[in-house]
Structures are given as structure tokens and as C-alpha cells.
Amino acid sequence: MKKELTGIFRGNEKGFGFVKIEDLENEVYISRGNTHEAIDGDEVLIKIIKEPKEGMHQEGKIIKVLKHEKTKIVGVFQKSKNFGFVVPDDKKINTDIYISKKHSKGIKNRQKVVVEITKFPQGNKSAEGIIIEVLGNVNEAGVDMLSLVKEYDLPYEFPEPVIEEARAISNMVAKKDIPKRLDLRQKEIFTIDGEDAKDLDDAVAVEKLKNGNYLLNVSIADVSYYVREKSKLDKEAILRGTSIYMLDRVIPMLPKELSNGICSLNAGEDRFALTVLMEIDKNGKVVSSDIQKSIIHVTRRMSYKEVQAILEEINQEKNQKVEGKQAEDSKSKELYTKKQKEKLLKECEPYIKHFKQMEELALILKKRREIAGSLNLDIPESKIILNENGIAIDIKKYEMYFANEIIEQFMLTANETVAEKFYWLEAPFIYRVHEIPDIDKVKELNQFLWNLGYKIKTAGDIIYSKAFAEVLDEVQGKPEERVVSNLILRTLKVAKYESENKGHFGIASKYYCHFTSPIRRYPDLFIHRIISKYLEEGYNLKEDELDKYHEQAIKYAQTSSERERVAQKVERDSEDIKKAEFMQDKIGQVYEGIVSSITSFGIFVELENTVEGLIRFEDLGDEYFIYDENRKTLTGERSKEVYKIGDKITIEVKYADKLTRRIDFKLAVRTKLS
């Protein structure tokens, strides 16, 4: 092995770090004294100084920083008499940034600032910099989310030429292009989304055919008709890659003039779409399909909550005929008052048959997917409620209904159908790829699962998604369900975009792409453009066109995967900030939780509302605890009490701080809950 290697430095708040080398399986450990002037994310040249021992990383020393990933840092300004310094928000950047008195005039203590580094850290010396922007006081409304925007250098505002191009697009469909499209305006078709959704890019319709099969039409906004290749809008969308959702704001991929306007499938308005028409048999198999450029006219906008209430009501009426009485604990009663429900049912009476057929088909598709081995990871999302000042005032699990499942099943089926068709055409395309997990990680997972009484079955080194699905079925409804789902999620590889089809392990699908959200994801927009090109040219593209789009598919798959990773980090950080903020005034309060993870430094506990905190060893009691890495357990040396993943325990909130995004618990009741 070469003694000098190039890689990316991954810093740690304690000062040491690791360097990821592209062709090396394990990262190289860098001690605190050997980090040179590198900070998290830097491209570095390292020298190997110690070969690995069993269970240990090989050790290296950074000898040169090839490229600084970040030169601008967001943090909190701390003022002293003759100088100041900035404490970075990103704790992986293990250096305060010294600000001279000259460069800190007018800056107030505990203000959030953006600092440009002028000298990187050397040995025990801190980095130096100048403040280039003041964001506001740490507790000022919106400053926490604005800090994330600056930290990740997000494109918060659209350039004026892009806005002008968007405003120049008519908010009415072009009459001259209507005859070129399949006219579905007389069909009853519905959007079903969350109540606060603004950009509606998918609409659905289901019909029962005479032969007993179902006709599922999934219509997706034809964004590529408006966002033309090489336009300013297109170039900006490529840079952004995806919309980013940050609780109190959205950083959209496209300007609102398009995303909330002509590209949004608003009820009662003509809209251009790409429609996938699928005939599906009683076993959930797509027996025939077609893709057409279309014009649609959405009959009614529905919310998941409304569709759920309607389905529960009609199902309840059926049960009433059979059982002779109405259930008193009806979920629909919780969704709406009696008067609201009566009004909804009256307004939607002409469409009830559609929703019933959607439910029937979704159940069929779900069953087929479960038989194939699709993974149902029951990991609830957090719903964080903010007040008018953007302060977190409540956190709970995001309510999911079967109505959500209906749309999910329809979108999955459309994505698979489109991906399979264009795979066999050997078209330039972007697929959504989720590869088979590493066998070593599965073996490691099985060590943890063994403690809980479960096992992922493997055939030698061959792994099937069905084996994961069987374990998830076993734990359904049990206290450890969430923990097992999380353990499995950590074992799986990360889904990404690629120009080559490699299947999707998580949904047990040979062919899969993202086709259904072109307003907020660039890969969807790109493949819409490819589909349109094939439709316009009779599925006969020229060689030079194929070469061009193949090159674009490779490039955009990579950049979109990178932008998606950034978006996920931002969204996760925004949740962590608001969860810590919510818990700041809960110090001393007692909650029940479940042990979600056990590490060499403590126990992570998750509360019912999805908030997670750490109990450090010193807060577990006055005895020494032995950590078993293989079993991921803690055992009290004196009491012999064992803590394991999935245990229910009672905690007291010890510490919470939105600036550090940290929440600490301590044990409130010594004995675990049964």
C-alpha cells in the first residue's frame, strides 16, 4: 500500500478525526496532534504512520491540506475585552475562530455571525477570521434556520433573471399544444395531499374494468414543458437539485410562479401532464401500460385526512349492516366533528366510489409488494409545531393514514412501470438505486437482533429483502418495533441516483426511478424530458442525442445525489435544533422512553414524541457499567442490572440546548419498566 494517500478529513468535536480514502474499506485515524490545519470536509494528503492492529484503524498524519471545503463558517460571537472569537455551530469543526478587536467593532456578544477564515488552525493555535455578516441574536426569531441556510451555503433566493424567466411563462395552458395531447379533461381525477401542500404535482384516477381489472391513471405535472433544457430555470434547478424543507421555510427547486402556479395541478384548472395508464389485475400485476402527454382538469383537491374520514365512514356503514351497531371509537370521529363529517360526505358523495376503488386497488398492490419482500420500516416522522415566532411549541408523531398509503402505492407502481419501460428501451435514464446490503453488516445486525430474539436469514452470502421483511412482520406492534426498524435502516445502504439500473432492495423492485415529483426533484424533471423526447420522436432518437443524454444522466445522477445528501443533513439539523429548543424548558420533567441505542459512552433514549436524548454513564447511578460491544448491552458491575436496546425506562430531562443541538437525560427510576 502507498504510504501517502489522498482523502477527505472527517473531524470530531474532541479534536481527532478520520480520513476516508476512496479505495480503502476502513477510514484512517488521525489523532488530535496530527490534523495539521485541516477542518471537517477538507481534502487532505496523509502519511500512514501506524499499521492497523486487530479491531483498530490504521493511523495517519495529515501532511498537507489540498483543498479547504469551507472557508466561511457560521457560529456564535463571544466578546472579550481586547478581542473576540466565534464558536462554530458545526461541532465537527474543532477550533474557535479568533477575531481581532479591529474586526469585531459593533458586533454584540452572542450574535450569530458568518466568519471568513483568513488563517487556518496550526497546532494549538486557533483559526483566525473576519466577520462578513451578522445574522442576529441567537434567540431572535428565524435566526436558527437562517444560520443553517448560511452554514450549508444554500441558494436561498433565486437570481432575478431566473425569476423573470418564470414570470414570463403564461399561467394558462397553450391552446396550440392541446391537440397533440391525450385529452383527459372529462375524466374525474383527484389530487390527494397533506392539508398544507402548495405544489401539487400528482393526480390519480382509478376505474374498475369489465374484465375485473383496474385502470390506474397517474398524472404528473409536465414540468419539462415549461422548464426547457439549457434555460435559466433549468440551470438553476440543476444547481439546487431538490427542494429543501426546513420547518419554517422551504427552499424550492423552482420559483413559486411555477411550483404553485402553472405546474401545480390545481383543481378546476386545465394542466399539462405526463400520464401513466396502467391496467392492473386482481393480483396487483401491471398487465399493460402506456405513457402519454396529456391535458387534465382535476375534479377536486382532497387531503389525506378527508379521504381517510370518507373511507372509514363507508367501511363503518358496511360493518354496521353486518354487526347491527356502530363502533363508538371510530377514527373518523377523531378526524372531524359530526357536522364537519356530514358536510364532507355530502360534498364528496359523487366521488365516493372512486375513493373506494382506490382503497381496493391500494390493498391489492400493498399485498403484492409485501409478498415480494418490500420493507415496511415503521419509523414515524416528527411533526414539529411552531408558533408565529418560529418557536417549537409541540412535537408529536406525524399522523399517517391509509389514505397516505393509497398514494404511496400508486406512485411506487407508476415509478416502477416507467423505469421498466425505459430500461428495456436502453434509454438514457436516471434510476433510483438501492443496492443489497453488505453481508458483514447483516452479520453485525444479527448479533444485535439475537438479543431481541430475531434473526435475518441468509443463504450463505446471498441476502433477500424478504428475510428483512419477515423480521419486520414479527416485531410489528411490539415494544421493540421502532428499535428493530432503526437497526435495519442503519444496516441498509443509502439509496442514490445512478444512470445504471441496479434495482431497489428496500421495495424489492428490479426497476425503479423517481418520476412522480418533477416540481421538487431534478432526476424526475430530467426523465420527464427524456420521456417527452421519446414520445415526440416516435421512440427513435438519433445517436448524437442518445450520447448527449447518456452523459447528462451520469452527471445529473451524481450531482442530484450530492444535493439530496445536503438536503437531508439540513432537514435533520433543523429538526434537531427545534427538538432541543422544545426541550429547553422541560428540564426536570419526567418521561417514559425506550432505549434506542447503546454506545461506549451512554444510552440513547427515545420518547413517545420522537425526541431522543443521551443518558451518560454518570447519570445511570453510582456504579460502574460494563459495555458489551457485540451485544450492545450495559451491565451494572454491582447490581448486575442489564440495559439493552428496546428496554422501557423512565428518564428525567437534565439538559437541552438548541445551540449545541444536544439533549441529555438522566435515569429517573432505577428499575426498568416492565
What oligomeric state do the depicted chains represent?
Answer: single chain
Radius of gyration: 27 Å
Distance N to C terminus: 53 Å
Mean residue pLDDT: 92
| CATH classification, class level of the domain at 587-667 | Mainly Beta
The profile of the biggest β sheet is: 5 strands, mixed, barrel
Extended strand count: 31
Strand content: 25-35%
Q: Based on CA inertia axes, which overall geometry fits? A: globular
Derived structural class:
alpha+beta
Uncertain regions spanning at least 5 consecutive residues: 320-333
Helical coverage, percent range: 25-40%
What is the topology, as strand order, of the major beta sheet? 1-2-3-5-4
CATH topology of the domain at 587-667: OB fold (Dihydrolipoamide Acetyltransferase, E2P)
SSE layout and pairing:
Layout: E1 4-11, E2 17-20, E3 28-30, E4 43-50, E5 59-67, E6 72-79, E7 83-88, E8 97-100, E9 111-119, E10 127-137, H1 143-151, H2 160-167, E11 182-183, E12 190-193, E13 202-208, E14 214-221, H3 223-226, H4 232-240, E15 244-245, E16 250-251, H5 256-262, E17 270-280, E18 286-297, E19 300-303, H6 304-323, H7 331-335, H8 338-347, H9 352-372, E20 382-386, E21 392-397, H10 402-424, E22 431-433, H11 439-452, H12 465-475, H13 481-491, E23 496-498, H14 522-536, H15 543-583, E24 590-599, E25 602-607, E26 612-616, E27 625-628, E28 633-636, E29 642-644, E30 648-657, E31 662-667
Parallel strand pairs: 3-5, 8-10, 11-18, 12-19, 26-31
Antiparallel strand pairs: 1-2, 1-4, 2-3, 4-5, 6-7, 6-9, 7-8, 9-10, 13-14, 14-17, 15-16, 17-18, 20-21, 22-23, 24-25, 24-30, 25-26, 27-28, 28-29, 30-31
Helix pairs in contact: 1-15, 6-9, 9-10, 11-13, 14-15
